[in-house]
Amino acid sequence: MNLDKIIPKDGPSIGEVEKYVKKYSDELIVIKCGGSVLLDENLFNQFIENIAVINKLGLSAIVVHGGGKNIKKKLDQNNIKTKFIDGLRVTDEKTIKIVEEALLELNTEILNNIKDKEANAQSVTPKNENIIKIIPEKKELGFVGTPKEINKEVLLSIVREKKVPIIVPLGIGDDGKIYNINADVAAAAIAKKINSRRLLLMTDVEGVLDKDKKLISEINSETANNMINDQSISGGMIPKINTCIDAVNNGVTGVVIVDGRRQNSLLFEIFSDEGAGTLFRRK
User: Fold this and answer.
1) Contact in structure between 125 and 168 (CB atoms under 8 Å)
2) CB atoms within 10 A of CB 37
3) pLDDT tens digit sequence for 190-213
4) Does the structure show a pLDDT above 80 at 86?
5) Residue 88 has what pLDDT?
6) H or E stretch including 272?
7) Distance CA 180, CA 146 (A)
8) CB-based burial label for 58 (10 Å; 0-12, 13-18, 19+)
9) Strands in 46-205 per DSSP E
């Protein structure tokens, strides 16, 4: 394998890549992307290239994508106002149709772009190979669900074919209807089910910061809980951190909040000693 041809010039060193390819060769890595990574053209292209590199190196990556900003654009075009309860979008019948449309469009775009880079990927949506069964969140949220069952056999068979599953965060309820799922929660549920070595949550922030606003490169669940209690971690970061804590306490070896705005952040997180965000471990 000619690594010079696969690794971008501004990526990690070849030596480091070789070391980490060995480390992760039989492992599963779940990657959730959202925020500006999906909206900013440069970040999007870089994300696609990074996924293609991971696939060409023979590692097993599974991608779950959000689409909040894409969804908002579509809802605005249709003059549909959005209400949020505890950070979750209230999703009625009209809204879920648009959410589904926005996510499926994005899914196809990600898929086609990865294939254009001569890497292999496969779409996973409720319309084909649905892998997520849900329980509804709260009545007042409408079509919003939490994963209750993940069909890991479907996922693993795609991975065995050396393809990257590209998963839409939608699931099907017992009523046969489609429900929206928070993408972090969907990615964590999948990572727990398959005991992945890593769950990478790509975001628009540097990672977890201490009181002096310095990046914490590694943290355990106990320290993270303490930081929530003393309000060093607050606001929208709390549900994300709780997702990380839950995942490392339930079978995922390490969860990383990755700064998706950084150059080749995925490659530096997986294939370098320095990483590109905050790593959560259980202890």
Assistant:
1) yes
2) 24
3) 999 999 999 999 988 888 988 888
4) no
5) 77
6) none
7) 9
8) exposed
9) 60-65, 84-85, 88-89, 121-124, 132-136, 145-150, 164-167, 170-172, 178-180, 198-203
User: Which amino acid is present at 69?
Assistant: K
Query: Tens digit of pLDDT for each residue in 154-191?
Result: 999 999 999 999 999 999 999 999 999 999 999 999 99
Lowest mean pLDDT among 51-55, 114-118, 213-217: 213-217
The CA distance from 61 to 66, in Å, is 16
- Whether the predicted model's global pTM rises above the 0.70 cut: yes
Query: If you compute the radius of gyration of the chain from its CA atoms, what whole number of angstroms results?
Result: 18
Q: Is the pLDDT of residue 84 over 90?
A: no
Residues with Cβ within 8 Å of 9's Cβ and at least 6 positions away in sequence, in order, are none
Question: By three-state DSSP, how is residue 206 classified?
Answer: coil
Largest CA distance in the chain: 54
Residue type at position 213: K
In one-letter notation, the amino acid at residue 209 is: L
The predicted model gives 202-231 an average pLDDT of: 90
Per DSSP, the chain holds a count of helices (H) and strands (E) of 10, 14
CA–CA separation, 82 and 93 (whole Å)? 13
- Residue 99 has phi, psi (to 5 degrees) of -60, -45
Token code pair at residue 174? 């017992």
Question: Which of 166, 170, 187, 186 lies closest to 178, judged by CA?
Answer: 170
- Do residues 260 and 204 make contact, with C-beta atoms less than 8 angstroms apart? yes
Handedness of CA 74, 126, 68, 239 (dihedral sign): positive
Comparing 72 with 175, which gets the higher pLDDT? 175
Mean pLDDT calculated for residue range 229-250: 89
In the sheet that holds 164-167, the strands lie side by side as 121-124, 164-167, 60-65, 28-33, 198-203, 254-259, 277-281, 218-220
Q: How far apart are CA 11 and CA 13, in angstroms?
A: 7
